[in-house]
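Example 4.3 (complexes with small molecules)
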Amino acid sequence: MTDTAGIVVNGVSGRMGRMLVQVIAASERAHLAGVLERPGHAWIGKDLGEMLGGAANGVTVSDDPATTLKGAQAVIDFTAPAASVALAPVAMQAGAAHVIGTTGMTKDDLARIADAARDGVIVRAGNMSLGVNLLVALTRQVAQALDPDYDIEVIEAHHRHKVDAPSGTALMLGQAAAEGRGVSLDEAAVRGRDGITGPRQPGTIGFSAIRGGDIIGEHDVMFAADGERIILRHVASDRSVFARGALKAALWARGKPAGEYDMAAVLGL
Ligand SMILES: NC(=O)C1=CN([C@@H]2O[C@H](COP(=O)(O)OP(=O)(O)OC[C@H]3O[C@@H](n4cnc5c(N)ncnc54)[C@H](O)[C@@H]3O)[C@@H](O)[C@H]2O)C=CC1
Ligand SMILES: O=C(O)C1=N[C@H](C(=O)O)C[C@H](O)C1
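Answer. The structure with NAI bound is encoded below.
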């Protein structure tokens, strides 16, 4: 146990928190060093194994990050923007890497995370899967290769519980398309259309979001021109792809210089 990396999971009762507990349990290189939930959550002070519907496992759910992170290699955090922003300096102070999968951050949230990363290692990505990070690289390459008269549209679909749009992944894909084309995403983005919108403005990058049922996460990048369309697609059929990527990031972070990294760095893409 002691020669494996101690990993703390934040937001342990959530969809990703539960998946991370399973992925860490299956890993030969990591063990669960602690679990966190938000203050006031019904699981605080309870045994994690019992809360998950099984036998007691001796891991108590805490709402005290500073204490729980002592001695841990990393904390993996798929929660909410305010929670991740608040945790970042605490993780840095504890000497733990902070792996952030949380999406829906504002520019101010991102600036605060970048600020915290001056004191330690943060790995942050809107999507931790290998497949999506490859798709990001392909999107940049295709956008660079095509003339600007190929209209770029990013279409994403997620489950009914998702609270942010466009998804973090869609924004990564849009950013890659903008970089490939040599434009600013802030200037090119068109987010959703409704009513008399007028014809499509040349050079824009459109975003559309679908929400429904239990869709785990689907992303298309469409390059549409007169006479043809190219569509790059990723479909996640199991949340373990995100959790495995996050654990890989947590292990990769060991000994890295302070700074904010993305999954392209972790995966060597
Ligand atoms: N980057 C990636 O690969 C992925 C990112 N996500 C993102 O991760 C986030 C969470 O997604 P889900 O697990 O589906 O949501 P969820 O709603 O199922 O879980 C969120 C958990 O965070 C907890 N939480 C909220 N505030 C907290 C605090 N202050 N301290 C500790 N825990 C706190 C909640 O109680 C809940 O258990 C979302 O932003 C989602 O977009 C989800 C999947 C993959
Ligand atoms: O909320 C989710 O579920 C997901 N969120 C991430 C995003 O916003 O892109 C990644 C994945 O698609 C699942």
